[in-house]
Structures are given as C-alpha cells and as structure tokens.
Design brief:
The chain has no helices and four strands. It is globular and about 35 Å long. With 78 residues, the chain is mostly beta strands. 0% of the residues lie in helices and 26% in strands. The protein starts with 9 loop residues before the first strand and ends in a 19-residue tail after the last strand. The strands form two sheets. Strands 1-4 form a two-stranded antiparallel ribbon. It has a two-stranded antiparallel sheet with strand order 2-3. The protein has one domain. Bound molecules: FE2/S2 (inorganic) cluster (FES). FE2/S2 (inorganic) cluster (FES) binds next to loops.
Length: 78
C-alpha cells in the first residue's frame, strides 16, 4: 500500500531530533522517507522536521492535508 492510500493518519510517537517524512508517497517505510524517490523524478523532497520534544503526532496518510506532513483532519471530508 502506498503511503497516501491509507486514507487516515499514522499516529506516531515522535522522538526529539531530525525526522524525515515521505512527501512523494512511494516509501515502503511509511510515513518515513526510505529514499524511494531517488531517481524517480517526482519533483518532491522529504519533509525534514526538527522535533524539540517527545510528542504524539498524526502524520497524514491521505496526502490531502494543508499542513503536510501532519494530518489536519481533511481525510474526514471524503
Ligand atoms: S490523513 Fe490526510 S488529512 Fe488526515
């Protein structure tokens, strides 16, 4: 299943540090980037997020959020 076919968020426990989330939807390690975009000419680059403190987040799994890589609830409006 491609990352954005999930249709609902990935609820994640984020650790402090640099997180790299997929933006092209091709990753096999969703929601993290696994480098699958390399050589595919997607025109997309992964989202790099500097996490300051441990937290629970919802990463978009539908690709329609206005606040990518995070879910903004848009998936509920299908
Ligand atoms: S999963 Fe995409 S907006 Fe919620």
């Amino acid at each position: 299943m491609a990352m954005y076919d999930k249709g609902k968020p990935y609820v994640m426990h984020e650790e402090p540090g640099l997180q790299t989330y997929c933006s092209c939807g091709l990753t096999e390690e969703a929601p993290y980037c696994d480098g699958s975009h390399n050589g595919k000419h997607t025109g997309k680059r992964p989202y790099l997020v500097k996490v300051e403190a441990e937290r629970i987040v919802s990463i978009c799994g539908c690709g329609r959020s206005a606040k990518l890589p995070y879910c903004d609830g848009t998936h509920k409006s299908r």
